[in-house]
Every structure is written in structure tokens, then in C-alpha cells.
Write a structure and sequence with these properties.
Elements: H1 3-9, E1 27-30, E2 33-40, E3 42-43, E4 46-47, E5 52-53, E6 56-57, H2 59-81, E7 89-98, H3 106-121, E8 128-134, E9 143-150
Parallel strand pairs: 5-6, 7-8
Antiparallel strand pairs: 1-2, 2-9, 3-4, 7-9
Pfam family, one: YjgF_endoribonc
Organism: Actinophytocola xinjiangensis
Protein name: Endoribonuclease L-PSP/chorismate mutase-like domain-containing protein
């Protein structure tokens, strides 16, 4: 099965291309590495969820935002590579979680991203990961991720 078929079997699909908020490329290949720029849980140019974890935004909605950010990252990968089958492994994911200073469930939110990549790629979809709490993200998004993949 292709990564897209595995996603579909799990009830997931790649969204339409998100609107870029600046002058950058969504993903860049350098040798055997693919660097994916920051992706948020956006649809039609706007975040589907906004807010901060620990202050009005549920962990479930933060996880949904993280999942959509992961799907947007997969779309960026496919745009550069032509097909997701060319990804050999996810090397590293950084997950930025907009949160209060008392919120401590960053790994739970980050697990939603890992689940998307594991669904698409199997065990090679689980790479190194950091989950970092931040005060602000573009457009008030609760989660932003960046990814390094091996191709």
C-alpha cells in the first residue's frame, strides 16, 4: 500500500495546499534530506483551531490541529517529491505547542503528529522528536511543526 492508501484506510486524507504566510518554500530537498517548513493545522488559509493549551483549548482540539499539521507536512513532502513513497524515514519532528506556562502535556499533542507519520510510513515514520511550549504561533494556531525526512 502507498502512504496515501494507508492514510485513507485510517480515515485520513491530504488536504488542499495551505496558503503560505510569507516568502519561503513549503519544503526543500538537499541531498537525501527533505526539510519541511513550519506547518499548522490550517484549511483554506486559516487555522481550524485557535487558542492555547491550558487556557480554553482542549487537548483533543490541540491533537486535531497537530494531526492536520502533520497532513499538511505530508502534502508539502509530496509536492516536492512527486509521491510519498520516496520518503524512507522521518528523521526529526519539532512540535511547537502554544500553551500556558502550567501546561505539561506537550508530548500528548506531539503524539498526534507521530501517529500521522506512523500511519503513512509505518515504523520509519517514528523519528526523533521535540515538543516545545511557546507563547505565540502564526494566526493564533495552537500547534506548528517542522520536519526533516530522509529520501
Amino acid at each position: 500500500m502507498t502512504p496515501e492508501e494507508r492514510l485513507a484506510a485510517a480515515g485520513l486524507s491530504l488536504p488542499a495546499a495551505p496558503t503560505r504566510l510569507g516568502d519561503y518554500r513549503p519544503a526543500v530537498r538537499v541531498g537525501d534530506l527533505l526539510f519541511v517548513s513550519g506547518q499548522t493545522g490550517t484549511r483554506d488559509g486559516h487555522p481550524v483551531w485557535t487558542g492555547r493549551c491550558g487556557e480554553g483549548l482542549s487537548i483533543e482540539d490541540a491533537c486535531r490541529s497537530a494531526e492536520l499539521a502533520g497532513l499538511n507536512a505530508l502534502l508539502a513532502m509530496r509536492t516536492v517529491l512527486g509521491e510519498l513513497d520516496r520518503v524512507r524515514a522521518v528523521a526529526r519532528v519539532t512540535v511547537y505547542v502554544r500553551s500556558t506556562d502550567t501546561f505539561t502535556a506537550h508530548p500528548t499533542v506531539a503524539d498526534a503528529v507521530t501517529a500521522v507519520f506512523h500511519t503513512a510510513f509505518g515504523p520509519p515514520g517514528r523519528g526523533a522528536r521535540s515538543a516545545i511550549g511557546v507563547a505565540s504561533l502564526p494566526q493564533g494556531a495552537p500547534v506548528e511543526i517542522d520536519v526533516i525526512a530522509v529520501v
